[in-house]
């Protein structure tokens, strides 16, 4: 049970990092096109990883 929870957290952390990296590659105009402000990137990546 503990091991499964640990694996789940690691997988979520990895998803967050991948999403964060992808969003950081976008310029301000591309982010605006999809309705994201640069200051929201971390919050959005975290929420996407937990979904």
UniProtKB/TrEMBL annotation:
Residues 6-42 form the YjiS-like domain. It comes from the Bacteria. Pfam families: YjiS-like. This is YjiS-like domain-containing protein. It comes from Labrys miyagiensis.
